[in-house]
């Protein structure tokens, strides 16, 4: 793989949106000049030299990244369907209270530990229990599960500001269309590679009773994600717009792989698109 040395990329790693897969992909593209989880390094070293990297990833907000880097860096971010996102996030916290997670449990802040333990008292297949848990969260004073994706664009959860900041991000993608997104970014950065799809990583298979297809469940979860829904819709439209405006877009995929674009009608609109 050969990288384009003229472009440096910062990935705003919104949790639970395919970030581990994105990191693994670009660590292969930039094997010697990639730095992931930069937020941890910044806590240890205030004078961290970022100039020697071509790809950096971290759980940092848009304002934090903008203040940290010079304008030559391009920014990238991914989002996730909001109902799936908030359930994944809650299941991640709940899993910390499982018996096989004792060591991992101890690594997390006390408030996360308390929430994980408290979650064991609820049956999340019951809408009333979801409502009771959210009420308990509010009483506990923990608001991080409320519109978490919006936080990464606007820490104060101002949706207008979040949308404005989104417009300033060069590459906007979603977990649900991660292959589409990474193929598009690779093309725009002139990366010479054979694209075989994003690696699948860091997947929690346990849902603890949550069913996002259930109408009552979605009704109870909605207050946690109403701003995220607006942001996600904007991200989807942005990704479609970026792909459709890209002339001569081609990507190599192995035979048998799902089509690079999930929507065949979009594919027909892209001139010179080649599917292998």
From TrEMBL:
<protein>
    <recommendedName>
        <fullName>Sulfotransferase family protein</fullName>
    </recommendedName>
</protein>
<dbReference type="InterPro" id="IPR027417">
    <property type="entry name" value="P-loop_NTPase"/>
</dbReference>
């Amino acid at each position: 793989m050969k990288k384009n040395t003229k472009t440096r990329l910062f990935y705003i790693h919104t949790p639970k949106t395919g970030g581990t897969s994105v990191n693994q992909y670009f660590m292969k593209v930039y094997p010697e000049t990639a730095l992931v989880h930069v937020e941890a390094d910044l806590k240890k070293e205030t004078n961290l030299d970022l100039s020697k990297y071509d790809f950096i990833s971290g759980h940092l907000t848009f304002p934090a990244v903008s203040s940290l880097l010079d304008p030559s860096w391009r920014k990238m971010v991914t989002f996730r369907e909001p109902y799936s996102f908030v359930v994944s996030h809650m299941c991640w916290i709940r899993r910390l209270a499982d018996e096989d997670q004792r060591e991992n449990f101890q690594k997390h802040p006390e408030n996360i530990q308390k929430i994980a333990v408290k979650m064991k008292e609820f049956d999340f297949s019951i809408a009333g229990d979801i409502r009771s848990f959210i009420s308990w969260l509010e009483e506990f004073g923990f608001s991080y599960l409320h519109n978490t994706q919006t936080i990464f664009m606007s820490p104060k959860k101002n949706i207008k500001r979040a949308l404005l900041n989104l417009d300033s991000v060069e590459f906007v993608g979603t977990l649900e269309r991660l292959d589409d997104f990474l193929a598009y970014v690779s093309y725009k950065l002139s990366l010479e590679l054979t694209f075989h799809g994003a690696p699948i990583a860091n997947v929690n298979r346990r849902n603890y009773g949550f069913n996002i297809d259930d109408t009552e469940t979605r009704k109870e979860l909605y207050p946690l994600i109403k701003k995220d829904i607006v942001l996600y819709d904007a991200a989807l439209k942005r990704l479609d717009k970026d792909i459709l405006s890209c002339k001569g877009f081609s990507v190599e995929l192995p035979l048998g792989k799902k089509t690079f674009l999930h929507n065949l009608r979009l594919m027909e609109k892209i001139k010179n698109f080649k599917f292998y």
